[in-house]
Amino acid sequence: MILEIADIRIHPGQNAAFEEAIQRGLNTVISKSPGYLRSSVRSGIETPERYVLMIEWATLEDHTVHFRGGPLFPQWREIVGPFFAQPPHVEHFNTLG
Question: What is the pTM assigned to this prediction?
């Protein structure tokens, strides 16, 4: 299992619309991708325009090849991309133990 963490910054004042959009994108697009296991989103307290999206994938390639290189990625970005103040910072993590 691989954990993808995306650090997302949105434009000020867009929180409610972004929160609806990210949930819709997760439910209608990302959850249909091969290797998708589960996801969660956290909102910043000190920085309200900051969100952390965590997605568990079966393999790294499920995210980097199948999702990012497939037809679902443009659909995802169409839903959430307009809210981004800058490109999200994305990293992947292995599970230990």
Answer: 0.95
